[in-house]
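Researcher: Predict the fold of OGFR factor.
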Amino acid sequence: FPFRLFPLREHGMNWRARPLTSQEIQAFRRSKEVMERFVRAYELMLRFYGILLVNKETGELKRAENWAERFDNLNRFSHNNLRITRILKCLGEMGYEHYQVHLVKFFLTETLVEETLPNVKRSALDYFVFTIRSKRKRRELVHYAWQHFRPRDSFVWGPRDKLLKYR
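Model: Structure tokens for OGFR factor follow.
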């Protein structure tokens, strides 16, 4: 069977790659070597996208030196958004929810605040945010997106009354 760099419990675009089982995920998570390789693969993909993992413990990210060139690639080729969604889902499966949160917030900041990734904005809002497993963290990210989305009246990713009351 072909192997996947970021395997999931669901079928992807490669019909020959079989989905992971819960038992396989648990075995991966118990293996220090597998988890170290997983983090290295994550760092490799981040660098490809022009992003650096600043802190392996927290998941904090920043732009890489080549960010402008790599962001241009992200803006031009939307197939990367599918890969990013897959990476985010896999981070959740492997127990790296804190990495998920930092990556989604990074993309929300770059799309809504810095406006460097306009062609990634819809994927960040429609898909990336909703890969977050923690309801509380997902709500925080939706609220963050709402705070920075313009025009705010066009924000459809959360109920306005709840967003106004969110603490």
